Amino acid sequence: MSGAISNILVDHVHIHDSPTGVNVKTGRGRGGYVKDIYISNVLMENIHQGIKATDQCDSHPDDKFDPYAFPITSGITFKDIVVLNITTAGNFSGISESPFTSICLSNVSFFTTSDPSISWVCSNVSGSSKNVSPEPCPELKSSLSSSSCFFLSYQDSQVAVS
């Protein structure tokens, strides 16, 4: 990602037999933003890592990038998600100069094949959660409120055609 992406709705998805279920990635030198993403009603089966969101991707097409162009990653909501037969629930790894903000998890259940106490990896991220199992890392445990999360429904994304 070297530009911007926002106002994305992902709804009613079945993902199976995949290394990663949902993957959001960007990195230093990319700039831009990833914001207002709403992912809901997802069933995942036989997944190694359920959610991966990282600003640690360091690939660039050439060496003419600005290493101080930090991406903004904010307003990503994960709602009504069930993941069966998984190794790692989530990995949220932002960068210290531009951490992930307003990450929301609501009604998310991971049924891990490993020790649930090591199923989350988090750094440089803040957000909130409600009804998440196993419990997410401390950075994602603040109380969930509708004002702190991005919500978009299918109805909101309809375009009138005349």
TrEMBL record:
Keyword terms of this UniProt record: Glycosidase, Hydrolase
Keyword Hydrolase: yes
SUPFAM superfamilies linked to this entry: Pectin lyase-like
Any GO molecular function: hydrolase activity, acting on glycosyl bonds
Coiled coil: none
Domain of life assignment: Eukaryota
Protein name according to UniProt: Pectin lyase-like superfamily protein
